[in-house]
């Protein structure tokens, strides 16, 4: 699990340090150096990875997507020197196909998904992601969305809360925490990060409290995933984004907890496998792998990087290249 989720210990003014930057540039560059290449950054954030790609590839066009309008405003300023080559979109990353359609782009040479929260989202107290600040319990990456963490905590049933804490936080004491929340909210609405963190602490056996970092870490991660529907959206996004990769195009995905990494691993593996039924004597052309995996297992940041940027420590990187047209499109033209 991401061991820095909800930890607001960083400098509030600090920029987001792009994770595994050199390796991602190296992995995507063979596809992005082609003339007329288009790169989709589905998690633009502060534009750190995108800035490096635009700098490395002077002909590259970027489509930068983020659900957070504050992040988009910041990356717009940062990427101003590349203005003629960049389009910005306020959208969820599962909307990448629609964003590309709107721009008249059929296929792209690169996609990056750097999942999770950005440093400003964590460090700015009022965003309500961090257990170490006292702030409104918000956690929306997209502040135009209605559902907040306070809504989840104050309206979901004990069973739903326990399921979320277990499934998304891998929290051992999910039922106890859910019970404490439901008991407490009868008396008053739970609407601050501090109050929630205190309730979690109170629900956990004293012996456990003394080990393993802040006991609220898993609860905060779970709520963040629920509020932002992170796993459901990611599951839809991977095939949709990969579907727009040109042959030779590459995708890289950076995950920060095991749930995201598992989804990514499965989605890439499913398309990197020959699905010819084992009882057939010859491989079916339409069942041949669409993708070639570029990473052996999940790659991790170096010890130096993790030491210099603790938020990188839990990162897992997977990448793949499209080696043939999408199944079902084999033998057909991919352009109209
Ligand atoms: C870890 S940050 C990306 C940082 C970026 N790579 C950089 O170098 O500055 C993740 C970003 O993805 C955005 N994000 C998370 N889930 C999203 C989704 N479903 N759709 C679009 N953007 C999303 C967040 O708002 C955040 O700005």
From TrEMBL:
Record localization: Cytoplasm
SUPFAM superfamilies hit by this protein: Putative methyltransferase TM0872, insert domain, S-adenosyl-L-methionine-dependent methyltransferases
Top-level enzyme category: transferase
Sequence positions that bind S-adenosyl-L-methionine: 47-49, 66, 93, 114, 121
One GO cellular component, as annotated: cytoplasm
Domain of life of the native organism: Bacteria
InterPro entries cross-referenced by the UniProt entry: RsmH, SAM-dep_MeTrfase_MraW_recog, SAM-dependent_MTases_sf
Transmembrane region(s): none
Main location: cytoplasm
Catalysed reactions listed for this entry: cytidine(1402) in 16S rRNA + S-adenosyl-L-methionine = N(4)-methylcytidine(1402) in 16S rRNA + S-adenosyl-L-homocysteine + H(+)
GO MF annotation list: rRNA (cytosine-N4-)-methyltransferase activity
Similarity-based family: Belongs to the methyltransferase superfamily. RsmH family.
Role this protein plays: Specifically methylates the N4 position of cytidine in position 1402 (C1402) of 16S rRNA.
NCBIfam families: 16S rRNA (cytosine(1402)-N(4))-methyltransferase RsmH
Full protein name: Ribosomal RNA small subunit methyltransferase H
Organism listed in the record: Nocardiopsis mwathae
Lineage of producing organism: Bacteria, Bacillati, Actinomycetota, Actinomycetes, Streptosporangiales
Gene encoding the protein: rsmH
């Amino acid at each position: 699990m991401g061991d820095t989720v909800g930890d607001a210990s960083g400098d509030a003014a600090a920029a987001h340090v792009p994770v595994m930057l050199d390796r991602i540039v190296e992995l995507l560059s063979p596809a992005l150096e082609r003339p007329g290449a288009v790169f989709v950054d589905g998690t633009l954030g502060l534009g750190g990875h995108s800035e490096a790609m635009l700098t490395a590839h002077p002909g590259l066009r970027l489509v930068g997507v983020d659900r957070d309008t504050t992040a988009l405003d910041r990356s717009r300023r940062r990427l101003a020197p590349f203005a003629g080559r960049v389009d910005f979109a306020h959208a969820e990353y599962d909307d990448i196909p629609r964003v590309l359609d709107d721009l008249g782009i059929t296929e792209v040479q690169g996609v990056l998904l750097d999942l999770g929260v950005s440093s400003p989202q964590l460090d700015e107290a009022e965003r309500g992601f961090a257990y170490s600040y006292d702030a409104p319990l918000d956690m929306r990456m997209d502040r135009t969305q209605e559902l907040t963490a306070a809504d989840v905590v104050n309206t979901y049933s004990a069973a739903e809360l326990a399921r979320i804490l277990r499934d998304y936080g891998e929290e051992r004491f999910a039922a106890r925490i859910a019970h404490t929340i439901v008991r407490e909210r009868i008396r008053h609405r739970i609407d601050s990060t501090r109050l929630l963190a205190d309730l979690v602490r109170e629900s956990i056996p004293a012996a456990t409290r003394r080990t393993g970092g802040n006991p609220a870490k898993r609860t905060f991660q779970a709520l963040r995933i629920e509020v932002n529907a992170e796993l459901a959206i990611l599951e839809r996004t991977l095939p949709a984004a990969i579907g727009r990769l040109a042959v030779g195009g590459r995708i890289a995905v950076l995950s920060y907890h095991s749930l995201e990494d598992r989804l990514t691993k499965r989605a890439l593996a499913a398309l990197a496998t020959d699905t010819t039924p084992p009882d057939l004597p010859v491989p079916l052309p339409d069942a041949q792998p669409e993708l070639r995996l570029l990473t052996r297992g999940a790659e991790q940041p170096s010890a130096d990087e993790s030491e210099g940027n603790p938020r990188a420590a839990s990162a897992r990187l997977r990448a793949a290249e499209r080696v043939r047209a999408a199944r079902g499109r084999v033998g057909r033209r991919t352009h109209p």
